[in-house]
Amino acid sequence: MEHRIANSLKILTEADKEACETVRVSENEPLSGKKRLFIESYGCQMNFSDSEIVASVMREAGFATTSDVNNADLIFLNTCSIRDNAEQKVRNRLKHLNYIKKNRPGTLIGVLGCMAERLKTKFLEEEKMVDIVTGPDAYRDLPRLVEEAGTGQKGVNVFLSREETYADISPIRLNSNSVSAFVSIMRGCDNMCSFCVVPFTRGRERSRDPYSIVKEAETLFHDGYREVTLLGQNVDSYKWTPEGEAVNGALGETPVNFANLLEMVAKVNPELRVRFSTSHPKDITDEVLYTIKKYDNICNHIHLPAQSGNTRVLEIMNRTYSREWYIDRIDAIRRILGEDCGVSHDMIAGFCTETEEEHRDSMSLMEYARFDFGYMFTYSERPGTLAAKKFADDIPEEVKKRRLAEIIEVQRRISLERNQRLLGTVQKVLIEGPSKKSDEDFSGRSDQNKMVVFPRENHKKGQYVDVLITDCNAATLLGRVLLPEPLLG
Ligand code: SAM
Ligand code: SF4
Question: How far apart are the first and last CA of the chain?
Answer without folding.
Answer: 60
